[in-house]
């Protein structure tokens, strides 16, 4: 049986949480996700409380390269805070294809079929092809990196990701010099993801980076977390990690990577451009139209910390924007 852990002190009292049934009924008045916006439900915390079995509930049935964990840790990335308790990270997720309730994503995302999984590489690239996920992850060395992760909703965590540096992936597929952007596309499986109805689209979720952002040393394609394959709620079997940007840029469950000359449309930026910019770099000095970005709350302890410009990664990325 799943053990229920006592919620952190900062969690909202049960009475102030909108019950899921009432909240869902309101969807009749809200026609698209575009009107919901991130943060609308940011205050709704774990729901039933963080579940110590959440990572197991979301575990992939047949994870790729399972024999390669734990990967060698890259010592260049040092944290200024404790690693987030995995129970909290695995129980508090944004994955809108499954639920707007962070605390129920791990249960609903368990329905996603992640095997077999293919990644299509297309567009302005010398070697377009479709990889089986296991084949791709065996072609490049896996490593572990400890990164801070800052959501635009002003919560944060610090987690050990396992994956391949995007730089190594770019070398493998060789983008053409005419490629100026990289577009990443998430899965499309309405039979498995209850919110992937036309009403809440446009699906699939997409994201994009400039080529220089993609080629930055920090950018990662992650296939694991906490020393094991990604549970489905974290975006199994492959997701993006760009730690100097707000979390919505770190697209989950990627099926396609395309190289383009024009700036692609992206999920949140095209839905609510005045709230979610294309660049979306963590910036404490620029408030979100509906809340301040000066501080952030750590999801396990509830500690409040000052938000760092570029989430503390200016040393690596500030030069990209000067
Ligand atoms: N990717 C997809 N496909 N769908 C989503 O809803 N949410 C984004 C991002 N990637 C999202 C996504 C947001 S808003 C955040 S904050 C992070 O995933 C959350 O990652 P985590 O649940 O692993 O902490």
Structure notes:
With 322 residues, the chain is an alpha+beta fold. The chain has 2 domains: 18-48, no CATH class; 52-321, Alpha-Beta Complex (Sulfite Oxidase, Chain A, domain 2), CATH 3.90.420.10. The chain contains 10 helices and 12 strands. Strands 3, 4, 7, 8, 9, 11 and 12 form a 7-stranded mixed β-sheet that branches. Strands 2-1-10-5-6 form a 5-stranded mixed β-sheet. The radius of gyration is 19 Å and the shape is globular. The chain binds ligand MTE. The site of ligand MTE has 17 residues, from loops.
Compose a concise summary of this entry:
This protein has helices at 20-25, 33-36, 54-57, 86-91, 105-108, 133-139, 166-173, 211-214, 267-271, 314-317, and strands at residues 118-123, 129-132, 143-150, 155-165, 181-186, 206-210, 220-225, 228-229, 239-241, 254-260, 295-298, 304-306. Helices cover 16% and strands 20% of the residues. The relative contact order is 0.18.
Relevant terms:
single chain, 322 residues, alpha+beta, Sulfite Oxidase, Chain A, domain 2, 2 domains, 7-stranded mixed sheet, 5-stranded mixed sheet, 16% helix, binds ligand MTE
